[in-house]
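Render this sequence as a predicted structure.
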Amino acid sequence: MTTGNEPPVPAADPPPDTTTTSAVDRPRNARGNFVRGLATVRRDAAAADYLAENPGTTYRELAERFGYADKSQARRGILAAKADVARPAVTKLIQSESDELDDLYLLAREVIERNHVVVSHGKVVCDADGQPLQDDGPRLQAIQTALRIRDQYQNLHGLKQPAQVSVSGTVRYEVVGVDPTDLA
């Protein structure tokens, strides 16, 4: 068992290339935010592998061994590597749920496109010309169902923007029945 105060054990394999890059060289997304580059992903994976093979290793030791700035960055790297491992399973689950929602949506669309007639006491109700009256109830219910399915699809794929609330203004307190000059 280690306490974190032991000197680091030399690595059997040399650590991955940990040459630091300037902020200018780091990859960014479309919004200009920094993203994990391939070198960072590889470093995180190597650190996670090392931690798995050496369970008593501290984050401070990982930071020194793999070139992280500090132990908190090493911890974030391990968490990112764990998320990378889980990502394919999560992607597969999302695709499965998405396919199921697609099938349900198609069923709702079929109900919307069908003609529905009014039935009363087991008989089709006709207008004065003898034509069956159209019943919009099933179609409207199918539309509501289709909208709920689309809402679930948007939630599943993260397409909804979070609601933002902006509060501004001032509050003025007034005590009724008290003369302001008596307060001074």
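Summary. The mean pLDDT is 83. The two ends are 70 Å apart (CA to CA).
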